[in-house]
Specification:
107 residues; mainly beta
């Protein structure tokens, strides 16, 4: 996952190196990026948050292997919560408290 200044004023910066990064959503203030990571070797799927300021990456949720799909939907307007949905026969909706913003990371 690379970040490039939109005005072209600086060099690209590597934020996260992972096997398969998908479903990227930007924090409302542009301070964090949440994404889904999938390890193809064992199909482990996680939701991770990276701080653009410090580069810290935290896994905020590990996903069940039985899930058909996971979608990161949105950040709350204040940037404290990450909304996502899981599909396993029926669609379930969840929110996670952003631990990089002082939250617990608990759904």
């Amino acid at each position: 996952l690379w970040v490039v200044p939109s005005d072209g004023s600086g060099d690209p910066r590597l934020l996260a190196k992972a096997p398969l990064i998908q479903r990227i959503i930007w924090h409302p203030e542009g301070r964090f990026i949440a994404f889904r990571n999938t390890d193809p070797s064992n199909e482990t799927r996680t939701i991770e948050v990276v701080s653009l300021e410090s580069g810290a990456i935290l896994t905020v949720h590990s996903l069940s292997e039985e899930l058909d799909d996971i979608r990161l939907n949105h950040w709350s307007p204040d940037g404290r919560w990450i909304g996502f949905s899981e599909l396993q026969g029926i669609m379930e909706y969840w929110v996670i408290d952003n631990p990089l913003r002082g939250g617990t990371g608990d759904p």
